[in-house]
Amino acid sequence: MRLGLAQINSTVGDLAGNRRLILDAYAALVAKGAEIVIFPELIVCGYPPRDLLFKRRFVPDVEESLRLIAAAVGDVPAIVGTVETNASGSGRPFYNAAAFCHKGAVTASARKCLLPTYDVFDEDRYFEPAQEATVVVHGGRRIGITICEDIWTHPMINTRRLYHGLDPVKQLAKKRCELMVNISASPWHNEKGGVRQTLVTDAAFELDCPVAYVNAVGGNDELVFDGRSLVSDAAGHVVAGLASFAEDLRVVDISLAADESAMKTPELSPSFALNPLADIMSALTLGLRDYAHKSGFRKALVALSGGIDSAVVGVVAAAAFGPENVTAVSLPSAISSAHSRDDAVALAANLGIPIQTIPIAPVVAACEQALAPSFAGLPRDVTEENIQARVRGVLMMALSNKHGALLLTTGNKSEVAVGYCTLYGDMCGGLAVISDVYKTQVYALANWINAEAKKAGRTPPIPQSSIDKPPSAELRPDQTDQDTLPPYPVLDEILKGYIEEGLSRADLAAKGFDPGLVKDIIRKVDLNEYKRKQAAPGLRITPLAFGVGRRIPIVQKYVN
């Protein structure tokens, strides 16, 4: 059977736009000889729709869009992810479903059995689970249809315990299907790709039939979907792999014969497997581009300090928008070093983006003069330092408003975690591009960016001095980050243990970290929850980002 895999980039709520994408992809794959065309999960409305589902007209409009899609489907069937109303009168109001469209109509529907309600997922809020996986018979072939989480019951997956033994793959094994299709909207984070591949190939081996896995691609809010759709033969060998972080339409010829044992040479996209840093760069670029373009922005603003964080954000912005659509701004204060100003100008020149300089010393002085009566008799402290950051925020937001450009914040996860950022200052902006990238990862990414440029025969964009010099916010003379923070390799390991692994103080001390340091870092993380709740949304690249997947109260007194 020739499977048409439609890995396309939908926009949440854009029913007409998504429908055009679906029908264009369907026509293209049919023209290439596909005998069945498979689309990702909830592709009709985009994933995740969240509380749009509760708007009175939303689901009826989704169902009408599906009807129009089905009406355009001819002899070649299409499996399309959609929302279906639960008309039973009990349970959640909707189903997460896969519509089997054929000859102008929806002829069958498969409903999702396992509804993830953890991390960034909240499907039990909206959907009623099915109790049994569906088999559709087409052309005499038995096709099992599952949706995303339905295959996440492998022994290696901890969350399988949430489903009380319900296993759609085992159900299909008893039904002897000849092909299993899994339509998915599985968001990416680093180190996730290999897990999905194992789930697909092990399911194929267990079912003794090929498995086609079609994943969403694109950015929707903080989530980035990497695609990487794939097909496994019955023996558990990957025979095709689609592009990562890009739309891809592919026809894959797979044998459904029970006695087929010859392994084909895998047909893998060059980007199906990338190294971890290439993955991060691709995810940040796609996530930023889609966040901006789907929100109506075509231009970006970034404040370049001469440091490594803003340098990496500048590189990502140039890749996402095109250099001609990015404006850099240097905002030197009275204590900004000459090398920082020079590095900012050099980065902009290397990227081919325009840069303007707006000195902030006069504005800072005016603010301090206005506040002088209220501050009389009080020593200078972090208050005056933060005035500099807040003046920069005011100026950058004014430029954003005037020019209709998306302002990108440049704080990394290490800084955001411990509150090493100024609310209404450097935190101002529409998207926090690297807020889920630890400082040590920022360094690794910067070195990788420069190395890739060298390999391509281009000038490395990030000045080496931005990488080599001690990191500093330059809010007071001779300041460095390590005046108040431990070295970033140490800090990041503590943060990963506390934030992502849920380790306690005692756990971290047992791993060899200084107990006093651990106590101080954890205190900083907990105290600055209020800042993160007011921060710009960020792009998720780790298993647990500061965002919808981490729901810590602002006011809480738990000490562990």
Description:
It contains 16 helices and 20 strands. With 560 residues, it is of the alpha/beta class. The protein has three domains: 2-256, Carbon-nitrogen hydrolase (Nitrilase/N-carbamoyl-D-aminoacid amidohydrolase, 4-Layer Sandwich); 278-481 and 528-533, HUPs (Rossmann fold), CATH 3.40.50.620; 486-526. The strands form four sheets. It has a seven-stranded mixed sheet, with helices on one face. A hairpin with a 2-residue loop joins strand 4 (94-102) and strand 5 (105-111). Helix 5 crosses helix 6 and helix 6 (308-321) runs parallel beside helix 7. The radius of gyration is 26 Å and the shape is elongated. The model has no long low-confidence stretch (mean pLDDT 94).
Topology of this structure?
Layout lengths: L1 E6 L7 H17 L4 E3 L19 H14 L6 E8 L8 E9 L2 E7 L22 E5 L2 E7 L20 H8 L3 E6 L8 H15 L3 E5 L1 E4 L2 E4 L3 E3 L5 E4 L6 E6 L13 E2 L7 H20 L4 E4 L4 H14 L4 E5 L7 H14 L3 E3 L3 H15 L6 H22 L2 E4 L3 H6 L12 E2 L6 H17 L8 H5 L19 H13 L4 H6 L4 H13 L1 H5 L27
Parallel strand pairs: 1-2, 2-3, 7-8, 8-9, 13-15, 16-17, 16-19, 17-18, 19-20
Antiparallel strand pairs: 1-14, 3-4, 4-5, 6-7, 9-12, 10-11, 12-13
Helix pairs in contact: 1-2, 5-6, 5-11, 6-7, 6-11, 8-9, 13-15
Chain oligomer state: single chain
Helical segment tally?
16
What overall geometry do the principal axes of the alpha carbons give? Answer: elongated
Name the helicity range.
25-40%
Largest sheet: 7 strands, mixed
Estimated share of beta-strand residues: 15-25%
What topology, given as strand order, has the largest sheet? 6-7-8-9-12-13-15
Whole-number average pLDDT? 94
